[in-house]
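Please decode residue identities from the backbone states below.
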């Protein structure tokens, strides 16, 4: 298992090619590359040419940092056909960038619409008909997160949708701070996912179901807003013994190719200290549950 840092909290103060050095200075040996205007922006075509990709790879090599995963977000399940077609075009370039960077894990989201579930699911499978042969040919794992406000938010349903592709190159991202939107206890989702779960994002969140559903109030009443946070471990309501113990139960720590990524976005003003705290805490918890007393 690789432990990686998501550099999103440092996007405003550092250029793309600085990220490997920043991550190394924080004590991490791996980085997860998430949407960035100079690499792969949200929902748009990648902006990195071959020269920039080579520079990025060299920056990682010079810093002694491996690229554990790439995380693009594209509307490949978009129920609007123009958006879906554009996303497929973008994905082809994303896959080539991953290959050129030597990356074998791509994490992403379903990126459909919850009010158009049937159309979004059909769009997802239609996109994968075209992309899956390329993904399998290149030997890349594409792992998908059932993100809040997507056409599939339920953890068990996400597993069903992914298994429907019938490909060993497809799996699931378990994002800890999305737990309270997944509709089932954490261990139940992890046990059902098993080997499909190959990438996890580590951040805490508050349970919006508490206080009779009134812990968070947004107006107007009855709106469809989804609430979650990306907080440091221990700052929210997640049961971290359940999380790290559940991953041990499904063999996550000793399975080849798995990635655990620090995914705290709520403390940019304290990003360096927070990242070091997360690395220390994740390492301690992994060792605690990998070799229980």
């Amino acid at each position: 298992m690789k432990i990686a840092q998501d550099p999103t909290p440092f996007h405003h103060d550092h250029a793309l090619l600085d990220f490997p050095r920043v991550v190394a200075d924080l004590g991490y040996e791996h980085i997860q590359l998430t949407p960035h205007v100079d690499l792969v922006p949200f929902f748009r075509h990648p902006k990195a040419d071959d020269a920039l990709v080579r520079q990025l790879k060299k920056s990682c090599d010079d810093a002694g940092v491996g690229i554990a995963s790439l995380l693009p977000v594209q509307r490949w399940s978009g129920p609007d056909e123009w958006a879906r077609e554009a996303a497929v075009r973008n994905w082809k370039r994303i896959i080539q960038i991953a290959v050129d960077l030597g990356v074998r894990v791509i994490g992403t989201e379903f990126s459909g619409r919850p009010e158009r579930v049937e159309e979004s699911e059909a769009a997802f499978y239609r996109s994968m008909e075209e992309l899956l042969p390329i993904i399998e040919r290149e030997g890349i794992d594409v792992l998908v997160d059932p993100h809040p406000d997507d056409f599939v938010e339920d953890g068990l349903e996400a597993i069903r949708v992914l298994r429907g592709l019938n490909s060993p190159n497809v799996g699931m991202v378990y994002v800890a701070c999305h737990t309270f939107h997944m509709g089932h206890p954490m261990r139940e989702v992890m046990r059902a996912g098993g080997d499909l779960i190959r990438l996890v994002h580590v951040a805490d969140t508050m349970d919006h179901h508490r206080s009779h559903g009134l812990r968070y109030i947004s107006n107007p009443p009855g709106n469809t807003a989804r609430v979650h946070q990306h907080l440091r471990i221990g700052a929210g309501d997640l049961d971290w013994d359940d999380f790290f113990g559940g991953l041990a139960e499904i063999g996550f720590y000793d399975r080849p190719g798995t990635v655990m990524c620090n995914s705290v976005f709520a403390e940019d003003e304290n990003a360096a200290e927070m990242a070091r705290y997360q690395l220390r805490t994740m390492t301690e918890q992994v060792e605690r549950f990998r070799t229980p007393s």
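Observation: The beta strands are 2-5, 30-33, 66-70, 105-109, 141-145, 170-175, 197-202, 259-262.
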